[in-house]
Write a structure and sequence with these properties.
A hairpin with a 7-residue loop joins strand 1 and strand 2. This protein is mainly alpha-helical. It has 2 domains: 32 residues, no CATH class; 167 residues, no CATH class. The protein has 7 helices and 4 strands, in the order E-E-H-H-H-H-H-H-E-E-H. It is globular and about 60 Å long. The structure holds iron/sulfur cluster (2 copies).
């Protein structure tokens, strides 16, 4: 198991910085003992800070991944990689994903029915973006799990499952529409692809980033792309 790093900071108390090779349960227990001395507001602020740092790190990893995908695309195009290599890369990617994720993930509590994101003209962009936002990882919240309307990956709770196309299992193969739209998680409701380099090289000019070669877009979009 990788080393666990916990960093909790608040203003009127000493900085708590635990960097250890403790197992996750022990690290969690230690963090719990320390955090019980904080009031709810400070704990909330500290957790928000952690969530922000984590999001920033994930964004950096996502950008690196996009650069790698672009490189793979170029190598495939130049014939340096054969198509069979894409399958191998997909398997390696899955293994890396599994090894770097914690066993259980639960999104922060929020009422998903009260949040919404920036409106995006998805319908007119689908042929370009290939609905790739629905291939990104999404973690369910306690509300989602308790509602019981969405399945999650049994070996990686509580993440939305993907199917053999690399897309979320809730995305319609034929119509590229979310089959669980009314119950979709908060992440899906608030996501915007405007600044996401995994999707657009230039959002306003409608120039998409290369699609990961391992993704198989829904039929409707594949038809449009190939037309
Ligand atoms: S990638 Fe952007 S434009 Fe495409 S479906 Fe997702 S949100 Fe809409
Ligand atoms: S739940 Fe729906 S909106 Fe969210 S990733 Fe899956 S298909 Fe897309």
């Amino acid at each position: 198991m990788n080393a666990q790093t916990w960093t909790l900071t608040w203003t009127s108390a000493p900085r708590i910085h635990i960097t250890s090779k403790l197992s996750a349960p022990i690290a969690r227990d230690l963090a719990y003992r320390l955090t019980t001395q904080m009031d709810d507001a400070r704990l909330h602020a500290a957790l928000q800070q952690l969530a922000g740092d984590s999001t920033q790190a994930l964004q950096g990893v996502a950008e690196l991944q996009q650069q790698l995908e672009t490189l793979i695309e170029i190598m495939l195009g130049a014939g340096t990689l054969r198509p069979g290599h894409a399958e191998l890369i997909a398997r390696l990617r899955k293994r890396v994903e599994l090894s770097r994720t914690t066993p259980v993930a639960l999104a922060a509590e929020s009422d998903k029915y009260s949040v919404e994101g920036e409106p995006i003209d998805c319908e007119s962009r689908l042929a370009l973006c290939q609905a790739r936002c629905c291939s990104f990882g999404v973690v369910l919240s306690r509300q989602d799990v308790e509602e019981g309307q969405l399945r999650w990956e049994l070996d990686r709770p509580y993440r939305l499952p993907r199917d053999e196309t690399g897309y979320c299992a809730n995305l319609g193969h034929d119509d590229a529409r979310c089959q669980r739209y009314d119950h979709r998680p908060a992440t899906c409701r608030t996501y915007t692809c405007r600044e996401d380099r995994r999707v657009w090289l230039d959002f306003d000019a409608r120039i998409p980033a290369p699609l990961a070669p391992t993704l198989i877009p829904p039929g409707r979009l594949t038809t449009k792309r190939d037309a």
